[in-house]
Amino acid sequence: MTRGEHAVVTGGAGFVGSHLVDRLLEDGFRVTSIDNYGSGRRENLEHLSDEAGFTELEHDIREPLPEFKNVDQIYHFASRASPADFKSHAIEIAQTNSQGTRNVYDLAIEHYAQLVIASTSEIYGDPEVHPQSEEYSGNVNVRGPRAPYDESKRFAEALAVAYAQRYEFDARILRIFNTYGPRMRNDDGRVIPNFLSQAIQGKDLTVYGDGTQTRSFCYVDDLVEGIRRIGGAESERVANTVFNIGHTHEITINTLAETVLDTVDTSSEIVHIDRPTEDPDYRQPNIDRIQSTLDWEPTVDLHTGLDRTISYFERELGAMTPDS
Ligand code: UDP
C-alpha cells in the first residue's frame, strides 16, 4: 500500500495508543509511535514489527521531541492514566502533561499539524453535575490525591486554549471517560482489569467501599472510532473544540462485579474493602456534542466488550487450557 499522511501517536505503546496506531495504519497513514514504555508495553506493538509504514521511537516527551521531516496529524495520548499510579508517579505524570504536552504542541506548530489531544473525565473531578457536559467546569481538589493527574490534564487543556489564541493551532480535545478492552495491563489497577484478573484466577473481587459509586464503561473499539472521526473531520467543524467521549450506560461498581461473575466461569466472590479517598461518586458523560457533530455513539454493550476483554486476559494470564 502506498502510504499517505504521517501521523505521530504519543503514548503509542499504551492501551488506547496502540489500538489507535493499528487503526491509523489500516486507514493508510504512515505512523510513528513515541513512547517511553513507562506504562506502555512493547508487546502492544510487536505485531507491527514488519509493517513498512510504521516506526517505533523510544522517547520521553518531557524531553525535546525528535526532528521529523513532516507531520500531518498528532494524536497526543502519552500519560499514565491509572489512579493506581497517581501517587507513585505523581511528578512524572504532572510533568508529562505539562512540559511534555508543551513539546507536543510545539511540534504541531512547527509542522502546521492537526492535533487530537487525549483529555479525561477526571477534569470534572468529583462532579456535582450529572451527567457531565462539556460546559461543566468541574470540582477538582487541587491538593487531593488525584490532583497531579487531574490538574495537569486541566493545564494541558488551558495550554491548548493559550496556543489557539497565539498561533494557527488546530487541536481537538477529547475528554475520555472510563474505557476498557484488550491490552490493558492486568496489573493496571483499574476496576475492569482488576475484576477480570481476579475472576480468572479465582480470587475474590475487591469492590472498594459499598460499591454504589457509578461509572460508564466504553469499549476501546468505540473510542478509537470516535478518535478517528474527530481526527478526520474538517477544521471548520472541530478545531479547538472539546468533546466528551464515552459510554452513557451508567452502572454501579456492584453491578459491574456481578456482571463479571456472571460472565467468567469462576468460584470468586465479592469482597468489600476500603475505598480510596476522593474517589468520584458518579460518572456519566453527556455525549450530545459528539453525537450531533460527528454522528458518533457507542455500539458495543458491556457483555460483548467484557467477553472480548476476558479472552485477552485469559491469554495474558495463561489461564487457558493448552488445547482451547
Ligand atoms: N474500584 C473497585 N475495585 C477495584 C478497582 C476500582 O471497586 O479493584 C472502583 C473505584 O473505587 C472506582 C471505580 O471502581 O469507584 C473505577 O475505578 P478505576 O480505577 O477503574 O477508574 P476511575 O474511574 O476511578 O478513574
Strand fraction band?
15-25%
Question: Helical content, roughly?
Answer: 25-40%
Task: Show unreliable segments.
Answer: none
From the helix content, strand content and strand pairing, which structural class follows? Answer: alpha/beta
Nearest-integer average pLDDT = 96
Number of strands: 13
Distance between the termini: 35 Å
Heterogens: uridine-5'-diphosphate
CATH architecture of the domain at 6-180 and 218-248 and 282-300: 3-Layer(aba) Sandwich
The helix count comes to 9
Q: Any idea of the CATH topology of the domain at 6-180 and 218-248 and 282-300? A: Rossmann fold
CATH uppermost class of the domain at 6-180 and 218-248 and 282-300: Alpha Beta
Order of helices and strands: EHEEEHEHEEHEEEHHEEHEHH
What's the main sheet like?
A: 7 strands, parallel
**Sheet with most strands: strand arrangement:** 3-2-1-4-5-6-11
Using only C-alpha atoms, the radius of gyration works out to: 19 Å
CATH superfamily of the domain at 6-180 and 218-248 and 282-300: NAD(P)-binding Rossmann-like Domain
Overall 3D form: globular
Can you describe what's shown?
The chain contains nine helices and 13 strands. The model has no long low-confidence stretch (mean pLDDT 96). It is 35% helix and 17% strand. Helix 2 links the parallel strand 4 and strand 5. The two termini are 35 Å apart. The protein has 324 residues and is of the alpha/beta class. The radius of gyration is 19 Å and the shape is globular. Strands 3-2-1-4-5-6-11 form a seven-stranded parallel sheet, sandwiched between helices. Strands 7-10 form a two-stranded parallel ribbon. The chain has a domain of 225 residues: 3-Layer(aba) Sandwich (Rossmann fold), CATH 3.40.50. The structure holds uridine-5'-diphosphate. The site of uridine-5'-diphosphate (UDP) has 14 residues, from helix 4 and strand 8.
